[in-house]
Design goal:
Elements lengths: L1 E6 L11 E5 L8 E6 L3 E9 L16 E2 L28 H12 L12 H84 L3 H4 L15 H37 L12 H5 L4 H19 L51 H14 L14
Parallel strand pairs: 2-5
Antiparallel strand pairs: 1-2, 1-4, 3-4
């Protein structure tokens, strides 16, 4: 016999989807049964259809699972709970209308009462009388409500005892099901994790992007299907692969730019100096601009421009000297004096990138006999 069942959630509520199973014994609509789902899973369900026509399941009849005594929960259809209440709902007859009419009549004389210095004492007495009357009515209400509620409270208490009896049997069964479901969820997690690793390897994801392809909570649901999980993981992996390819293209552009700019530098720039721009999501054009700007700074540090010092020369006029005609003119040897050397000790602070600092140090090493590094620290990144 073919029957239709609807799966129950953790709160015991039936879902909207109906599933077909082969039954080896008789069931009634409303019976709760444990049915096989997935490869090894089990799920609690309620019978909602009997004698399902084979024509409705022709397309998938070979995949229909069978339930029998080994899967059956204790049928609830044979457990009758016909709780009878032999009581007449209380009908409360009061003389509210009579009291209300008399009260309005008596209260009318107070409606136009105005508190003044002359009427103050009388108003205080009137207010005390009205407060006493109000409290009396409210206390009467509370007392009668408590008295009339006693049979309702007793009825509610007895119903709670019945519920407790049912729960004492239901709880260990439910706990056992939860243990089984937790085990199934753990198996589903491991299976999904294997899928993530396998798909990541097939798509060639690096460790950085493979670590982002994690197992989602929905993959561990008891109703989750392997095909749906695999399709979802594949879609996510494709998105990560696109991001990985974009990063690889960016790294290639940066590497080429570094090689080109380093050709004119003594102290070479490295990829590590620009990794922070990549991590922050800078565009290729922005990173290239940073590389070129830093290369220019390093180049200028290594090749400072020569500044010609203009020295003002005082013009001297030499008076001609008359010599005897018989004197012979001897050639005069002119000796040029070497410019004086200066020893200057500088103390300064240099702020720049690693390449710029190295270039500055190389320049000092070339132009001076010695220099001393007092301290150094990284101030950015």
């Amino acid at each position: 016999m073919l029957i239709g069942v609807n799966y129950l959630d953790k709160d015991g509520n039936a879902g909207n989807q109906t599933y077909t199973y082969k039954a080896t014994q008789e069931y009634a609509v409303g019976d709760v049964v444990n049915v096989p789902v997935g490869a090894k899973g089990m799920k609690e369900a309620v019978v909602t259809r009997l004698d399902v026509p084979e024509s409705e399941v022709e397309s998938f009849k070979d995949k229909i699972k069978t339930i029998g005594e080994e899967y059956a929960a204790e049928p609830t259809g044979n457990t009758e709970i016909d709780l009878q209440v032999d009581a007449t709902l209380p009908v409360i007859n009061t003389n509210f209308e009579t009291i209300k009419a008399n009260l309005k009549k008596n209260l009318a004389k107070y409606e136009k009462l105005v508190v003044t210095e002359e009427t103050l004492q009388g108003c205080k007495q009137t207010q005390r009388e009205l407060a006493g009357l109000r409290i009396k009515v409210d206390n009467y209400r509370k007392d009668k409500k408590k008295e009339l509620s006693k049979p309702i409270e007793a009825f509610e208490s007895e119903c709670k005892k019945l519920i407790a009896l049912i729960e004492s049997v239901e709880k260990p069964i439910k706990d056992g099901i939860n243990v089984f479901d937790d085990k199934t969820k753990e198996e589903n997690w491991r299976k999904a994790d294997d899928m993530c690793r396998d798909i990541a390897a097939k798509m060639g994801l690096t460790a950085k992007y493979t670590s982002q392809l994690v197992v989602l909570d929905k993959y561990t649901n008891l109703s989750a299907k392997d095909k749906d999980i695999k399709d979802d993981i594949t879609t996510r992996a494709m998105v990560l692969k696109t991001e990985q390819d974009k990063e690889a293209e960016l790294l290639e552009i940066i590497t080429d730019t570094l090689e080109s700019e380093n050709k004119r530098l003594t102290v070479k720039m490295t990829m590590g100096e620009f990794q922070r721009y990549i991590d922050k999501g800078f565009k290729a054009t922005e990173v290239i601009a940073e590389i070129k700007a830093q290369a220019e700074r390093v180049y200028l540090a290594e090749n400072p421009p020569i500044v010609e010092e203009l020295v003002e020369v005082e013009e001297t006029v030499t008076e001609p000297v008359e010599t005897p005609q018989e004197a012979t003119q001897e050639p005069v040897e002119v000796v040029s004096e070497a410019p004086p050397l200066y020893k200057v000790i500088f103390e300064s602070m240099v702020v720049g990138t690693e390449s710029e600092v190295k270039a500055y140090a190389a320049l000092l090493n070339e132009k001076s006999n010695a220099y001393k590094v007092i301290s150094q620290e990284q101030i950015d990144g």
